[in-house]
Design goal:
Rossmann fold; 6-stranded parallel beta sheet; 3-stranded parallel beta sheet; 10 helices; globular
């Protein structure tokens, strides 16, 4: 019999998140505060431009004071630092987002560390990361935060489960592993983190009750790497050539969706899974920052 896993729709969850945000935004406006999000885009990276346009469009829909500063690829590091410092001082800006990757002549870490941690809605500043590790209130990196919201919405039980995270990036893998071990309802898991230097990765992934794939490799997780009845969270968004498509490519995740769907209990699709949640949580972090500004 064909397996019919639960499809964990990030589109659906993101709509629920934005509905909640609308209520909070109205309360802020009653107090004279409009959430302000400024994105800084340096250069012409096509993927970054698409992502920033989406952020701009969605924040405008929610009635944010939203702006994008588009800077030439030749912008110097000092010039970018000055832009960030000016935004730090601007009381109407609650969230600062410097879109990565930056041109090679700019030290990305220095730029991230220059952002005021109280406006670090991406959750990349060392202060934000430290608060996450210590389970203190702060801004959580948007993709892991979005994955938590998906689990919450679909009532995915994590307590006592074995969570295997594939990938050790600062943006997804490391913060995700930290979130899963916290003493919280959406935590209390036993966590294994595997990466490119892990021998025989399948030995670990086959033990996962919940498998979170953030490897950045198209369809890396195959059917034989997954145990029956697992929950699969696919973070990957990869372009692969496909001459049959009008655009000449299609989007796939880090999981072989068709094959793995035959074994798992639940799975996020690509597109429409984790992707929409990343932007939803960026908007959520910005509203949180605006609320914090009133304290």
């Amino acid at each position: 019999m064909p397996n019919n896993p639960l499809i964990l729709s990030g589109k659906e969850v993101s709509l629920a998140v934005k509905s909640d945000l609308n209520v909070r935004i109205e309360k802020l406006k009653e107090k004279g505060v409009i959430p302000g999000l400024t994105a800084v885009l340096v250069g012409e990276d096509p993927a970054s431009q698409v992502y920033v346009r989406s952020k701009e469009r969605q924040s405008a829909k929610l009635g944010f004071n939203s702006q994008v500063l588009r800077l030439d690829a030749s912008t110097s590091q000092d010039e970018l630092l000055k832009v960030v410092q000016d935004l730090n001082q601007d009381e109407k800006v609650h969230g600062i987002l410097v879109q990565l990757p930056l041109p090679k002549h700019i030290d990305s870490q220095l730029i991230i560390e220059t952002i005021n941690p109280e406006k670090d809605v991406d959750g990349f500043h060392p202060v934000s990361v430290g608060k996450l590790v210590l389970d203190l209130d702060g801004f959580v990196s948007c993709t892991p935060a979005g994955i938590l919201e998906i689990m919450k919405y679909y009532k995915i039980e994590t307590s006592g489960k074995h969570v295997v995270v594939v990938g050790r990036s600062n943006i997804v893998g490391k913060p995700m592993a930290n979130l899963m071990i916290q003493k919280k309802d959406l935590g209390n898991a036993t966590v294994t983190l595997v990466h490119t230097r892990t021998p025989d990765m399948g030995v670990h992934t086959r033990q996962a009750d919940i498998l979170i794939a953030a490897a950045g490799v198209p369809e890396f997780i195959t059917e034989d790497m997954v145990k029956d009845g697992a929950v699969i969270i696919d973070v990957g968004i990869n372009r692969v050539d496909d001459a049959s498509r009008e655009k000449g490519y299609r989007l796939v995740g880090d999981v072989d969706f068709t094959a793995v769907s035959e074994k798992c209990a639940a799975i996020t699709p690509v597109p429409g899974g984790v992707g929409p949640m990343t932007i939803a949580m960026l908007l959520s972090n910005t509203v949180k920052s605006a609320e914090n500004s009133l304290k």
